[in-house]
Design goal:
Elements lengths: L2 H12 L8 H7 E10 L10 E4 L5 E3 L5 E8 L1 E8 L6 E7 L4 E8 L5 H6 L3 H15 L4 E5 H4 L7 H5 L5 E6 L2 E7 L7 E5 L2 E2 L20 E7 L13 E7 L9 E11 L4 E14 L8 E21 L2 E5 L5 E5 L2 E24 L2 E24 L4 E6 L2 E33 L2 E35 L7 E4 L12 E29 L2 E27 L10 E2 L13 E2 L1 H11 L4 E2 L1 H9 L3 E18 L2 E24 L8 E23 L4 E12 L3 H4 L3 E7 L5 E7 L7 E12 L6 E19 L11 E23 L10 E14 L16 E10 L3 E10 L2 E4 L10 E3 L2 E11 L4 E8 L6 E5 L5 E6 L3 E9 L1
Parallel strand pairs: 1-7, 11-14, 32-35, 36-39
Antiparallel strand pairs: 1-4, 2-3, 2-5, 5-6, 8-13, 9-10, 11-12, 13-14, 15-16, 15-49, 16-17, 17-20, 17-48, 18-19, 20-21, 21-23, 22-23, 23-24, 24-25, 24-26, 26-27, 27-30, 27-31, 28-29, 31-32, 32-33, 33-34, 34-37, 35-36, 37-38, 38-39, 39-40, 40-41, 41-42, 42-45, 43-44, 44-47, 45-46, 46-49, 47-48
Length: 942
């Protein structure tokens, strides 16, 4: 059969719904085979093993419990073949009678899979094998991380673990990975699920899920789907991240493991404790086989760290004393952060199998990210002074102003997930169903309290001879080092509460069937997601304190600052907080700023999404096709606030009015994915999909801040910043091609290309002059209208060097590289630009060694520079970029016994900082240093 005919046969077969009704009679003439694949002891099972019938176009892949089922087999004698990459094939001969089901327990003995049994649950090879087998048999384009894979790198959270996969990078906060970027797409354009349940994000202004909240210790597998299928949510332009936690049937009964250690940061010279544990057990509720079980996992990491930074405001063009024009730093900052980040994660899962045909489950997860932060800033306001000297590498300014700002906060982010569901198998029918509830949010454990101290008429300057670490300084009388020169000017407190709640119901029905002689299935289902989101900020701004206070009243000893410059006197945070608490009632409230800051960002949103889909899959010889159509209806309603200040027609006091918005729309998501087996070890894949990304919450919130103010010359200036509830979702048509070669063992060679055609891209624009703001000077809001395209190349190579002489035969090398390019229409720009967050080059390289007792892995992660944000719509000179990032990590393990293992992790060995700049790397926007981290601990398995 020619390839074109195979394609045609597959497409026609996938639409033969009439075949549903011919299957009942067929089932009476045929039989079925079901079973489980385990190791010799029966304690461990093989997921993603390929089960095939010799001489027939019939196969199945074992599920996460090692189970499989093959239906509609004619009566007769067969050879059932079991294969698992990294092991050897096992053959079992059976005789099948009409209308009967043969049940098999296939044990891969130590003779037939000696190496495989030893590495099944431990070591670098184990993690690679598990991931490769899952990826190899997936219906679409998927990258996989197993729990063993995650454990082979010193990653502190799930985001950092995912950066090891091809095409994935992370956005960092305080040196730690937070948001996941897939193929250069904004993190808010990804979807994230835990055990099949959609998870909202804790951030108030974005749909992105910050995965630093979730500990990597709780993970069983993570799958990154880069091409979705019709049974998946359609809002996944970047991709879908599916997180699966441990279940009772993943491990033997009575399994227990505890891991404990300490993490030492070289910058703050403090040790942070870290502990994690897992316990699973299984029981029999009816006196027979073990059919009920639970799995409990926990993790707690109390991370103490510091970061020191230098930040620059915008660089403007100014004339120097020599008459030449130079780019001048308008404002510079020295920053010192002291942080304690306490991450607590818990997962408790129950599984019950009342019969051979029904599985029931309850999945629960709770993750808490407790972030306590103190911050001290020196803010040099160069633009407020007179230029004494200015050239291309620095400047000196007299009669300027300097601020010293302090704040301390304790914000807690949480993610919770509860999912109740099951699967029932009725001959050729398979039903799965679930109901879930998830929440995410952020709340201040205590009010954030901050103050601003101002020193006027000071002489300050900067030296940017080293542009990455410019020196900010005072000169002359060095007034900036005298605490008595800094007068208390403002105090502000802030309480934050935002929460998102989602309730979801899902029903899927699958019918296994034959399309002629070709096996396949038809699957259809419905899903409802009911989402509510609330954002509430309470701010109090004070400008009068009953007396004059200076920094002398709250002075702390000088702060250590390892970057160029001198922080000068510090602030005693505890003393300042006590002062605010004791005297707040006598402070003079700035009613206008308080009202605006408290009300302008508040909103309540409801978003209901109802979906249905129909899909089919068929295997024709070496070709496998899955395709179908999904439809989603979205109903969005929100209430916010309009804040108006009008000095022309009223007294200029802020006026608050409720403001509402709504939007409903329907989207269709056709998709098709093909997999063609060129040889037993080589296959190519192709996928055509359509996806969307709904607008961010801040962009779509019904909020308006309108100001009409009188300038000194009597002219009224009209400016506004508004949300846009009428935004349409961003839509993307996607093409993926990939070829994969599996040489054997834990080895892989892969190459792929991808393309995304994006319409209705979200752009921030000035819409002044358009109704209803025809007479305004500036109106900033987010609009649809930008188009963009993104394309790239992914290469991956992993090789187990088992063919080399000892000790090199215990080595494993892995590398991946992704090239990405994009073109996006940007407002008020004649030329197209890159998508925000898109790096041209992303790469990973690791070299590992594992002899069963001693193991180690040296890993490097690289991401090239990327465009981050627009500061001036009509001038790219102040566009912000993040510089390239290369980080080197090491992990080493020594197995003392079968139960006890010691580990050593070295993180950020090359002490890579964060560096961002405006337009050109010579003009600093941000430089932060985090230092190296060393971890030492043990793992004990009972």
């Amino acid at each position: 059969m020619t390839f074109r005919k195979k394609i045609l046969t597959a497409v026609v077969a996938a639409t033969m719904a009439g075949g549903l009704f011919a299957q009942t009679a067929l089932a009476q003439q045929t039989g079925a085979v079901r079973g489980i694949v385990t190791d010799e002891s029966g304690a461990y099972h093989f997921s993603d093993a390929l089960i095939s019938i010799d001489g027939m176009n019939r196969s199945a892949v074992t599920d996460r419990d090692g189970r499989f089922r093959l239906d509609n087999l004619p009566a007769g004698q067969y050879t059932v073949q079991v294969s698992y990459q990294g092991g050897v094939a096992e053959d079992v001969t059976i005789t099948l009678e009409p209308g009967e089901t043969e049940t098999l327990t296939i044990q891969l003995s130590r003779d037939s899979a000696s190496a495989l049994t030893e590495v099944l649950v431990r070591g670098q090879v184990a993690g690679q094998l598990s991931a490769l087998n899952r990826r190899r048999h997936a219906q679409s384009i998927v990258d996989v991380l197993s729990s063993d894979s995650v454990g082979q790198f010193p990653d502190q959270n799930l985001a950092e673990a995912l950066q090891r996969t091809s095409g994935v990078s992370v956005q960092r906060d305080q040196g730690e990975g937070r948001f996941v970027v897939i193929r250069g797409i904004d993190p808010s354009f990804n979807s994230t699920t835990i055990n099949g349940l959609r998870i909202p994000g804790p951030e108030a202004d974005s749909r992105a899920v910050n995965l630093d909240v979730i500990s990597s210790d709780l993970i069983e597998t993570v799958e990154v789907s880069k091409a979705i299928t019709p049974d998946m949510d359609g809002d996944a332009v970047g991709g879908n991240i599916e997180i699966k936690t441990l279940t009772a049937f993943d491990l033997p009964a009575g399994f227990a493991r505890v891991t404990a250690g300490g993490s030492y940061n070289a910058t703050n010279e403090k040790t942070s404790p870290d502990i994690a544990g897992t316990y699973t057990n299984k029981f029999s509720l009816d006196g027979g086989e073990e059919n009920f079980g639970f799995a409990f996992s926990f993790s707690k990491f109390d991370r103490k760290t510091v970061s020191d930074g230098i930040e620059g405001g915008e660089w403007s063009f100014e004339e120097g004393p020599d008459g030449n024009e130079y780019r001048m730093l308008e404002e510079g900052e020295q920053r010192d952060y002291i942080l304690t980040r306490d991450r607590t994660s818990l997962a408790l899962n129950f599984d019950y199998r009342p019969s051979d045909n029904t599985d029931l489950y309850l999945r629960t997860l709770y993750s808490e990210f407790d972030d306590y932060e103190t911050k001290l800033e020196n803010i040099y306001k160069f633009a407020d002074g007179d230029i004494e000297a200015l050239n291309g590498s620095g400047g000196r300014f007299i009669g300027a102003e300097m601020e010293k700002a302090n704040s301390d906060s304790n914000k807690v982010q949480t993610i919770t997930s509860y999912s109740l569901g099951g699967e029932t198998r009725l001959q050729d029918w398979v039903l799965d169903y679930s109901a879930g509830y998830s929440t995410a949010g952020e709340e201040g454990a205590i009010s954030e309290v901050g103050g601003v101290f101002v020193a006027e008429d000071v002489d300050i300057g900067y030296d940017a001879s080293n542009p990455r670490k410019p020196l900010l300084f005072g000169f002359g009388a060095q007034a900036i080092l005298e605490p008595g020169n800094f007068m208390l000017d403002e105090i502000a407190s802030e309480d934050v509460f935002n929460e998102e709640r989602e309730t979801a119901f899902t029903l899927n029905v699958r019918r296994n069937m034959l399309f002629g002689d070709n096996p396949g299935y038809i699957r259809f289902g419905v899903k409802s997601r009911l989402r509510e989101r609330e954002n509430n900020i309470e701010v109090a701004v004070y400008e009068g304190f009953g007396a004059d206070y200076s920094l002398v009243d709250f002075q702390a000893s000088g702060m250590d600052f390892p970057l160029p410059g001198n922080l000068g006197p510090g602030v005693d945070f505890a003393s300042f907080r006590r002062f605010v608490a004791s005297n707040q009632a006598s402070f003079e409230l700035n009613a206008e700023d308080t009202l605006i800051d408290s009300a302008a960002e508040d909103y309540v949103m409801e978003e209901d999404i109802h979906a249905a889909y129909l899909m089919a899959s068929v295997d024709v010889d070496r070709l496998s096709v899955v395709g179908g159509l999904r439809v989603e209806y979205t109903d969005f309603n929100a209430t916010g606030t309009r804040v108006s200040i009008d000095e022309q027609t009223s007294d200029g006091n802020p006026v608050l009015d409720p403001f509402q918005g709504s939007k409903s729309y329907t989207d269709l998501f056709p998709s098709v994915a093909l997999r063609y087996q060129l040889t037993d070890r080589t296959q190519w894949r192709a996928a055509l999909t359509r996806t969307i990304s709904r607008p961010g919450f801040e962009a779509a919130s019904p909020r308006q801040a309108l100001e009409i103010t009188e300038e000194d010359d009597g002219v009224f200036e009209r400016v506004a910043e508004i949300g846009n509830p009428d935004l349409d979702p961003l839509r993307s048509n996607n093409v993926d091609l990939r070829i994969e070669h599996y040489p054997g063992g834990a080895s892989l060679m892969s190459a792929g290309v991808f393309y995304k055609d994006i319409s209705d891209f979200f752009v921030e624009a000035d819409t002044a002059g358009q109704a209803p703001f025809a007479n305004f000077d500036e109106v900033i809001q987010t609009l649809n209208g930008g188009d963009a395209s993104l394309y790239g190349l992914e290469l991956e190579y992993t090789q187990q060097l088992s063919g080399l002489p000892a000790p090199f035969n215990n080595m494993l090398i892995g590398t991946n590289y992704t090239y990405t390019s994009s073109d996006a229409e940007l407002p008020e720009r004649a030329q197209k630009g890159r998508l925000p967050g898109q790096s041209d080059h992303i790469g990973n390289l690791s070299v590992g060694y594992d002899d069963g007792r001693l193991s180690g892995r040296l890993a490097a992660t690289y991401r090239s520079e990327f465009f981050e944000e627009i500061n001036e719509a009509d001038d790219p000179v102040n566009d912000r970029y993040q510089d390239s990032h290369l980080q080197v990590d090491f992990t080493g393990k020594f197995r003392v016994s079968d139960a006890l293992e010691l580990y050593l992790n070295l993180i950020n060995l090359n002490d890579e900082p964060l560096y961002a700049y405006f337009g050109d790397a010579r003009y600093v926007s941000q430089h932060e240093a985090y230092g190296r981290t060393y971890e030492l601990g043990f793992s004990y398995q009972f």
